[in-house]
Amino acid sequence: MMNGGVMNETGCGMAGLELTTVVDAIRGQLEDSMNRSAGQRIQFELGDIELEFSVTVTEDSRREGSVKVWVLGAGGSQGSSSAAAHRVKLVLKPKDTVGGGSPHVSDPSVTGLPR
User: Fold this and answer.
1) Phi, psi of 16 (to 5 degrees)
2) What is the DSSP letter of 82?
3) Mind giving me the DSSP string for 31-68?
4) Taking the C-alpha atoms of 23, 24, 26 and 32 in order, what is their torsion angle to the nearest 10 degrees?
5) CA distances, 53 to each of 75, 82, 96, 115 (Å)
6) Which of 55, 70, 75, 86 has the greatest CB tally within 10 Å of its CB?
7) Measured in Å, how far apart are the chain's first and last C-alpha atoms?
8) Pairwise CA distance, residues 83 & 7, whole Å
9) CB–CB of 55/29 below 8 Å?
10) Number of other residues whose CB lies within 10 A of the CB of residue 36
11) Longest C-alpha distance within the chain, in Å?
12) What sign does the dihedral 17-20-21-27 (CA atoms) show?
């Protein structure tokens, strides 16, 4: 992975994160928002989440036949690398595993609303 200008595992010198890391971060931030919304009068039902990324796909040299999908960072360019950039769109449908329904989030910065 690229950190501070060091080449990541894509082997192509592009700043990037594994797709799984990005999706996990989104999940974690949504969960944090849900936790902060507890007790808020105004909440929002979370609908489909659409994400669009530029990605590269590389073979995982540690596991035969395995590939890795890397989300390119802003300004990442293909350069002279053999890894081609692709556009990928994911649509995530969040589900609250505790309550079974659609999760709700709120904006804790909204103040002054009657409770």
Assistant:
1) -165, 165
2) S
3) HHHHHHTTT-SS-EE---EEEEEEEEEEE-TTSTT-EE
4) 170
5) 12, 19, 25, 40
6) 70
7) 46
8) 14
9) no
10) 13
11) 59
12) positive
What does the pLDDT profile of the chain (115 residues) look like in tens digits? 333 333 345 444 446 888 889 899 999 999 998 888 888 888 888 889 998 989 888 877 777 778 888 898 755 444 434 467 888 888 988 888 887 788 877 655 555 544 4
The token duo for 20 is 């799984």
Distance CA 92, CA 47 (A): 9
d(CA 80, CA 57): 16
Amino acid at 115: R
Q: Which of 114, 112, 90, 92 is nearest to 102 (CA)?
A: 92
In residues, how long is the chain?
115
Half-sphere exposure of 29 (CA within 13 A, CB side): 8
Return the number of other C-beta atoms located less than 10 Å from residue 68's C-beta.
Answer: 20
Distance CA 82, CA 46 (A): 39
